[in-house]
Amino acid sequence: SLVGSEMCIRDSLYTVAGHTFKLLLPDDLSEVEWLVPYIPFEEKREVDFLFTLEIKKCTIASLQDVRRDMCRFNDEPPYLWLDNEGFMFASSMDEDSLGCLICTEKYYTIGTLYLPETSNAKFYFDNALKLLYILNTTTLNTLMLHASVVTQAGNGYAFLGKSGTGKSTHSQLWLRYLEGYELLNDDHPIIRLMDDEVIVYGSPWSGKTPCYKNKQACLKAVVRLEQASENKIIRLRGIQAYAAFSPSCSGMRWQREMADAIHQTIVAVTEHCRLLHLKCLPDEEAARLCCQTIHER
After folding, report:
1. Helix ranges (DSSP H) in 54-144
2. What pTM was computed for the model?
């Protein structure tokens, strides 16, 4: 059986995109190593929270005892594992063994992360927290994106694309060549439908770029990037806009309620924001063409 070791626990609250969660962390956990991205989101008020994640230490051997009850969901690392009931999840960098285990109760509001001491422990912690965040916020008009976002004067612009397409590179071109823009998040920003507007938020999850800003902006445009030998941009509407945006939205789409919520939020984005497809080079011209097209009447 999987048994986490007993230890001194400290708890703290964090609010990301208006959603608050509680962390129960071992007292010997290094704040400098683990919690720096979360510090801007720490909640000093006593407020209600959506979910709790507690970390318990375990052995690698104990994780393998439960592997027989898990099925691997995807074919590329990091791997996601699920049990048949849908309340146990695991993550790993190895296709044959588990790196950590996340156990939740029926409504996903109480989660326990069983974590061995490995070089990937911080990575598994972040992944577990993102997973619980998605499970608890998807039905609240909220989506976690795989995107890079820049902002100017309270407005946000999101760049999407497959891994390696150049989302971060394109953001950097805007920062370098266009005046007044700043980076909001470089990997996993959050969007919410609020009062008939789509708001984009920074998060503690920003990939390899240390950009952890507790800020928000009105999402005005979404640009799907594609590498090409020349710069060309087109406006997307209807089903094309939906299809361009949907792959970059995280969520458990095999669950009907969450799938419906994801669909409704995506539709709202396509109705409230400009959707564009940019075939581009990693150069100044691409950034200027994109910006000019977004702001055309």
Report:
1. 60-66, 121-137
2. 0.94
